[in-house]
User: Fold this.
Amino acid sequence: MERVRVLLVDDHTVVRRGLRRILESTHEIEVVGEVGDGDKAVAETASLVPDVVVMDVGLPGMNGIEATRQILTKVPKTHVLMLSMYADEQYIRQSAAAGAKGYLLKDADDQDLVSAVLAVCRGESHFSSALATAAAIGECPPDVLSPREREVLARVCAGCTNREVAGELGLSVSTVETHRKHIIEKLDLHSTAELVRYAIRHGLAG
Assistant:
């Protein structure tokens, strides 16, 4: 079986060495390169075409979110896993909007990092368990949402405005607003942040 080829992006050499050691402890992963800033990340991804880029959010010059956006425009077959010290909802939403498939905190354990890289390589979403802080007990199950409502929710989580959602789905803005109202009523959630957390917990974030 071919190993998953990974590019590491972090501005701290010690951190990159640690990540390399963790990832190469399994025969399923090969680290093919490492860089320390966003511009080099874009260039190296275009050159190496890795399966997964493990991307720090905070980088000198171009930040990790913008680098992710550029990478996925130029090399759409590559998947990006964000790595950050910050459990910040704004960063998570911006990362998802840029196309990242996962967001992991730097205090995650070794196996969680390996599992996240392998999951993202398969095209699955993977978010740190520490980010899903609200308990899922007592929540409405996602099957209360219609397929169209799920589509709208995924785009809301990606940071799209009602007008952008309408354009992508071929709906009127008023129809999108109605869908959002129904989603909020069905799930008994009262803010975009709560909707994003719910969608992440239930794999609906796109």
About this structure: The longest helix spans residues 173-187. Residues 133-137 have pLDDT under 50 and may be disordered.
